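So, who can interpret the following?
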Amino acid sequence: MQEQNILIDQLEDQLIDHPDASTRQQLKESSYDETFQKKLNERANQLLSGNKWGSGDDNTGAYLQFLVTKPILDYLYSDLAPLHQELSEWFTSSDYSIIGLRDLATKCTLLPDSLREFDLTTPSEELDALTYAVLGSYGSTSSAQDQLVNISENCRHVISSGLHHTATDLLKSCFHQCNVALESGSVSMLSGSFASNYFKLLTVVYFLTNVSLTSNVSPDFVDHIEKSDLLQATVEFIDKWNQYPSPVSRIRNVLLITWKLILLEFGDHAHMEEVDKFVAEKHDIKNKDRKDLSNNKLTCSHLDYFTFRENLMDKYPLYSDKLANRPQELHSSTSDREANFMAVSTYSNSLSNLLEMPRTNKSHTVLGQLPIQTVHIATPVPSPPSTPSDFMSGGEKIRKLYHVNQGMPFVYPSGDNQEIPEAILEASDLLENAVYESYSIKRSWEERRRFMAQERGNVDQYSEVEKPTNIEEEILNAEDPQHESETHTLRRIEKFYAATLTHLHGLVEVLLGVIKSNKFDFNLKNAEQEFDPDTAFSNRFGGSGTLTNKVQLAILYQLELVLLKEIALKASSAILNLLMKWFKISHVIKYQYFTSLLFDQQYFSVFVDLLGCSFNNTELQDSEEFNKGTAPYDILTSQNKLMNPAINIPQFEFFNNCNGKVPSVGPIELINKTPIGKLPHTTDENNQNFVHITKFNENFCFILTNLLNVTNKIMLKNISQRIFVFNETKCTDLLKVVLLNYINDEFRIPILKIFKKLIPYQGRKWRAINMDVISLIYLHLKLSLKDDWLSGKDLECDFNNSFDQEIALRSLLQFYNMRKYPSQMLYLGYSLAFDNIPQVEYDESLYS
C-alpha cells in the first residue's frame, strides 16, 4: 500500500512539476483535469489487474470508482429558430379571423403587381392580395413544406417588385394614427377595417423580414428598412404604448417585429464578431486574441498593472525602472497612462476617480493597518528573560500577528548589489507583457479625460468649435470597400441610438413588464388530466361529450395564453441582449447607459423572481401521489420550465389552419415524467458517466441564456453597488441549480461570471459550502495574472464607496449624452447653462 501511494505521488509530480513529452502532448490536447483523470484510470487498471481483491472485471465496483455523472444539456444557442417556427409564433387563434384567413384563399389567386397608398380605414384588395402572397398562397398547397417554399419565393418576388416600399410606409402611417388615437383617447373610434389592415401590414413586414434573415435576398430591402427608420418607429411606438396601453396596438407583434428588425439592420452574433474585430483593428488593439479561452497566455488589466507598480515602488523605493526591457508597442501607451493615471488618482479630486481606483496595499483598509518592519535583520536580539512567561506557567497565551504591512519599505537585504530581488523583476516583466488593452477601455478613458477637462474648466468639451476629429468619427465616416458591411452597421447603431435615446427608458420599462407578466400560475397537472379520458373530471362524473369539449377548449385557450407570454418574453430577452451587445461595440458609454436604465428598473429583482417561479414552482410539478418516493431535489430539477415539454397546440397552429388539417384533441404531455437520474447513461473512455438531456423547452433555454447574459453585463466592473443589490436578492441557490444540473456553456459561462463577482462578498461559511462553484470558476473561466478576486478585495472600502461609484458613473454618462446628443437630452429636461459661471479676468501685469 505504501508503494502504491508513492506511485500516485509520482504520477502527480509527473503531471504538474516534471511532465514528460507524452504528458505535455496530452496537456495540449485536453485540460489538466482530463489528463489527470486518464492517468488515474491507467494507474487504477494497473492496481486492479494486480490486486488480489479484484479480478479486473469491468463490472466490479473497484473499476467504477472514478465514475462521475455529468448531465449534459444538448442545447446550442441560435439567433433564429427554424423559419416555420418563427412564422407560427406570430399568430394567435383569434388572429385568423382578423386577417381573414379563409376569405383570402377564395378572393386572391394571383401575385400582386402593385400596392398603392389607400385609406387605412377601408378595405384594400391590393393589400389582401399582398398578404395572401406572403402567407404562401396556401389555397393551392397541400402541405406545410410546400407552403414554406411558396412563402420564400413570393417574399422574394415582393421585394424584387419593390412592393415593400409602400408596405413599410403604410405601416408607419398605422403607427402614427394609433399614436394620435392613443394620445387623444379615441382608440374606440378606430374601425375594424383599420385593425385588420394594421395587422396585415405587420404580417407582411414580419414575413418579409424573416425570409430576408433566413435566405439571401436583395440588399434593397435592408437599405429601405434603414432609410425608412422603421426600427426607430417601432421603438417610439412601444414607448407610446407604455404611456397609453391599449390592445389595439398589438404590442406582442410589435415586440416580435422589433426583434427581427434589430437582427436585420444590425446583424446576428456571427456578424457581431466581425464588427468587433474591425473596431479592434481600428483602435490598434494588438493583443485581443489573448482574451480567448483557447489562448493559454494570461493577461491582466491596466489597473492591476498600475497597482502592482505602485506597490513595487512603495516596497522598494530605490527601484529604477529599466525601459529597455519593455516591449516597444506597449511602452508608449502603458508608461504614459501609468504616470497620468496615478497622478490623477493621487492629486486630483475628480469625481471620475471613483470609477477606477488603484487598490494598493497602503490604501487597503485592513492591510494598511498592519505593523511595519521596524527592526532590521542585522539588529542584535536581546537575551531572553530569565523568568518564564505567563503562558508557560499556565497563563493566557500571547497571540502574535506575523503579517506585516506590505506598503512599507522592505528593510531586509536582497543580495549583492541588487536593488530588488530577481523574482520581483521577473514578475514586473510578466505583468507588463500581459497587460490587456481593449477598445472599450480606450474609449472609456478618453471620455473620462474629456470629463475631467470639463470638470476643471480647462476646455469647453461641449463646444463644437475647433473640435478635433476622433477615431470614432473616422470609423463612421470611413469609406472602406473591404469593411463596408461593418461600417454600415456602426452607422446604423449610431443613428438608432440618436433617434431613440428619448424612448429607451420606455422601451426598457415595457420589456421588464413582459418579464414580470410571466409568473406561472396555471396548474399543468390539472390540464393534463382533463385531456386524458380516464382522469377527465367531466367523464368521471358522467358529463356529456359537449361539456368535455368545452372544458378542453377553455384549457387550450389558457395554454395558448401561457405560450403567448413565453413568446413575448423570448422576443423581449432577445431585444435586451442584442441592444446591450451592439451598444457596447458602438461605444462603451452607450452600453453603460443602457445597463443603468435596466438597473434603475429593478431588473435584478424581476429576473430572480422569474427564475424562482420557473424552477421552484408547484404549478409546474406533477401530483404528490405521482412524485411519491422521489427526492424533492430531483423534482425541482426535473419538473420546471426548462425540463417540461414545450407547449404545443396543433389545433391553433398556423400551417395546420392554412391547410385545413386541424387534428382532433387528444392526450397531451405538459410535465416531464423522467427524472434526470433515470435518463440513459453513456460512459466514455475516461470512465465518466454522461447523461444527455435531449428533451427540453428550447424557447426557455433561449430566454434563460439571454437573461443570464444581461444580468452579467449589468454588473459592471468596479461598480460594487450593483453587486450588493443583486446579492440581496438571495439568488445563489437558484443559479447553482442551473449551473450544476444542466451542463451547457450557454448557461455555465454567464453564471460563473456572475458568481465570480458575487463570491468576494460572501462569508467564509458560504465559500466552504460552495467550493464546487469556486473550482468551476477556476476551471472554465479565463484566468488572469492577478486572480485575487477570492480573498484580495477591500470589502469595507467597496461598501463605503459603492454609492459614490454609481453617482460618478451617472455623471460620466450624462456628460457623454449631453456632449453628443444635446437636442435629445433637452427633450428629457437636461440643458447647458453658462449664465451663472463667473468670468475670470486675465491680468497680464500679474505674469509680467
